[in-house]
Specification:
This protein is mainly alpha-helical. The chain is built from 15 helices and no strands. The relative contact order is 0.17. Keywords: Membrane, Transmembrane, Transmembrane helix.
């Protein structure tokens, strides 16, 4: 039998300030995530001049610690008393996290042996991954803990995705121009100074949800064993399918964003600053998609909207791959891709929060471990995708730091940029989410859920 849940803390009004503050938190996280997704491999290969094979190994090795720390953080959250489950961890982890943000992008001198520079970069990135996982798991659990109502969760998820998109937009537009300006042409110095500024901005953004957001929803009583929690979570069909779909789409996004700068430079033969503008285009269209997500979900349902948007995103990338490689074609395709992703994101996190409630999914109400494992899967997809992309680039003959690349290297870059993400998105929408969309679980949960505080 399921253990009885403890009484909920006294409800308080969820106002606009709390919704906005919650979105500001994901803006901070996505400034860091966007930098890692779009510029980390480029930073290590083109700025630090590390071999691409070493970078691939480093991205995989750095995730090992998170495989232990993230689930431990989730279990810790589940066992905390009601009203104080995730917020203390979020508040306490901000300062260590922003310090490691500044240190991780600190280039080591080129005069040092490449092995020493590789080990130093791996240690710095591993520490950043652990700190990110701790703070981000606590923040993610807040999606389930602030409110139990479907409508309010959709508002929170939309605010979160708007903040995330603004963070990605800021990164895409400002990174390379600011690096060049701060470093006066020396990108090693520029990256070091830029990341100090980024750390300060991110720290301020993460302080907002830690100060203005409140926990109102409780999970189980905390006396379940770890084995029982894991077994209950793995029995949760909705959580499994959503996590699998998110893993595939994150893997695809890692290929797309990681190869974008290479594709612009070596396939489209344009400035790497153009990559920033293309990333900005994606972010702007994601914002538009977030605005469309709520009315589309109200009309067709959250799960069908997510599946349709995922399939459309994969289809757009596949069409772009078979068309001639031109800046205009890529720009239009990425704009449509961003629109589809923006439509999917809010409904995805709303679905995920409801799946963690356990209602109708044969699962256990355990938000800490569920968010932790979901986050771990996404980050594993990022590192696996980064490693696989590095392998594709190495196998295709990419020469780091070269002004031109051979045709076979260009073909590998372009396939990693468009074809691989297209296939992964189509698999996520056409296979993993097929049964999930037919089941449309949130509407069933919503029909019995009490209305959120207003």
């Amino acid at each position: 039998m399921m253990p009885a849940r403890p009484p909920m803390p006294p409800a308080s009004r969820i106002g606009l300030a709390e919704v906005v503050a919650f979105g500001a938190g994901d803006m901070g996280f996505n400034i860091i995530w966007g930098l890692m997704l779009s510029y980390l491999a480029y930073f290590y290969t083109e700025i630090c001049l590390l071999p691409v094979q070493m970078v691939g190994f480093m991205l995989m090795a750095a995730r090992a610690a998170s495989l232990v720390t993230d689930p431990a953080v989730g279990i810790w959250i589940d066992r905390r008393p009601a009203g104080r489950q995730a917020l203390p961890l979020l508040r306490g982890g901000i300062v260590p996290f922003i310090v490691l943000v500044a240190l991780a992008f600190l280039p080591l001198p080129h005069g040092w042996p490449v092995v020493v520079r590789g080990i130093g970069a791996t240690i710095g990135y591993m520490a950043l991954c652990v700190a990110y996982g701790v703070v981000n798991t606590a923040y993610g659990a807040m999606t389930s803990l602030i409110s139990a109502g479907h409508d309010m969760r959709l508002r929170l998820a939309t605010s979160r995705m708007v903040g995330a998109t603004l963070g990605s937009l800021l990164v895409s537009i400002a990174t390379l121009p600011m690096v060049d300006w701060l470093g006066h042409g020396d990108r090693q110095v520029g990256f070091a100074l830029f990341m100090v500024v980024v750390a300060c901005v991110v720290g301020g953004l993460l302080w907002l949800p830690s100060r203005f957001c409140h926990e109102r929803v409780t999970t189980d009583s905390g006396d379940m064993t770890v084995r029982a929690r894991v077994a209950g979570l793995l029995a949760n069909r909705g959580w499994r399918r959503l996590t699998g779909a998110m893993l595939l789409t994150m893997l695809g996004s890692t290929f797309l964003f990681g190869a974008l700068v290479y594709d612009v430079r070596y396939v489209l033969h344009d400035s790497d600053h153009m990559a920033g503008w293309l990333l900005g285009t994606i972010s702007l269209m994601v914002l538009v998609g977030c605005g469309l997500s709520l009315p589309l979900a109200a009309r067709w349902g959250t799960a069908p909207v997510m599946r349709g948007g995922t399939l459309a995103a994969g289809g757009v990338l596949l069409v772009a791959y078979v068309l001639p490689a031109r800046v205009e074609v890529i720009g239009v395709a990425l704009a449509l891709f961003g629109l589809c992703v923006g439509i999917c994101n809010p409904v995805c996190f709303t679905l995920l929060a409801h799946c963690m409630d356990g209602d109708g999914f044969s699962g256990t109400h355990t938000v800490g471990l569920a968010w932790a494992l979901n986050s771990t899967a996404s980050k594993m997809a990022f590192d696996i995708g980064g490693s696989l992309l590095a392998g594709v680039l190495a196998a295709s003959g990419l020469v780091g730091g070269a002004r031109m690349q051979p045709l076979h290297a260009q073909a590998g870059i372009h396939a990693g940029f468009l074809l691989v993400p297209a296939v992964l998105y189509l698999l996520a929408g056409g296979v993993v989410l097929r049964y999930f969309a037919r089941q449309n679980p949130v509407e069933a949960v919503n029909s019995t859920a009490s209305p959120p505080p207003t």
